[in-house]
Design goal:
three-stranded antiparallel β-sheet, 35% helix
Length: 99
């Protein structure tokens, strides 16, 4: 599956109050990694991690809406990890991403 980063940014930003379209930003980093950032906090992931998160959450890859919803919530969880809790506890994470 190809992922539209603009749709992923929109889904991630939708998880935060105010719906600011620039609150979370995505950019390509070296070694085919994507950097999601919210202020000074960053989370790095690649396409293999995306596939793993979708598998863990049993998302049908043909369901575009569910795909971006889960990924947006996953990014929100990772970028708010400093609070010590998940904003969306129903979203499963890989052990390498545990808060």
């Amino acid at each position: 599956m190809n992922y539209n980063l603009n749709m992923l940014i929109a889904a991630a930003n939708k998880q935060w109050r105010g719906d600011n379209p620039n609150f979370i930003q995505l950019e390509y980093a070296p070694e085919n990694v994507i950097r999601a950032s919210k202020g000074d906090v960053s989370y790095y992931f690649d396409y293999e991690k995306v596939k793993l998160i979708l598998q863990l959450n049993e998302v049908d890859l043909h369901d575009e809406r569910a795909t971006y919803d889960v990924l947006g919530k996953h990014l929100a969880n990772q970028l708010s990890a400093s609070m010590g809790t998940k904003i969306f506890p129903e979203i499963k994470s890989h052990t390498s991403d545990y808060i």
